[in-house]
């Protein structure tokens, strides 16, 4: 009896999973106007994920742990552009400002 109940439970779980998988495909076959909506939503989710990961790993002013680095703006390299696109921008340090910075630390 236990073996029979186990088989029934496994078959029921398998059928539910397959119904959920094929339910989306059947819905897309029935309602073809939903396909572009699903495509645009998937593209926007992928783009947002890519942009978040790109800025997290490449930009020095994006932080996750504030307790380890309470003043992240002090570690930003001014010679490295922080914008996504930088056209003809060159940075030179101001001597007076650097002196004041070194005195306050």
UniProtKB/TrEMBL annotation:
InterPro entries reported for this sequence: B12D
Membrane-spanning ranges: 34-57
Keywords: Membrane, Transmembrane, Transmembrane helix
Name of protein: Normal mucosa of esophagus specific 1
Species of origin: Hucho hucho
